[in-house]
Amino acid sequence: MENSARQYVELYEQCRETIMSHSCEAMNAVREEAFESFRSSGLPGRKDEEYRYTDIREMMAPDLGLNLNRLEIPVDPYRAFRCDVPNLSTQLYFVVNDTLFGKALPKKELPEGVVVDSFCNRQDIVARYYNSLTTADAITSLNTMLAEDGLLIYVPENTVVEKTIQVVNILRSDVDMMVNRRVLIVAEKGSKVKVLFCDHAADDRQFLTTQVTEILAGEGADIEVYGLEETHQRNALVANTYIRQESRSRVHHSLITLHNGKTRQMTRLTLAGEGAECWLDGAVVADKEQHVDNNTLIDHAVPDCDSHELYKYVLDGNAVGAFAGRVLVRKDAQKTMSEERNQNLLSTKTARMYTQPMLEIYADDVKCSHGSTVGQLSESALFYMRQRGIPLEEARLLLQAAFIYEVIDEIPLEPLRDRLHYLIDKRFRGELSKCEGCKLCR
Question: Which of 139, 382, 184, 427 is nearest to 283 (CA)?
Answer without folding.
Answer: 427
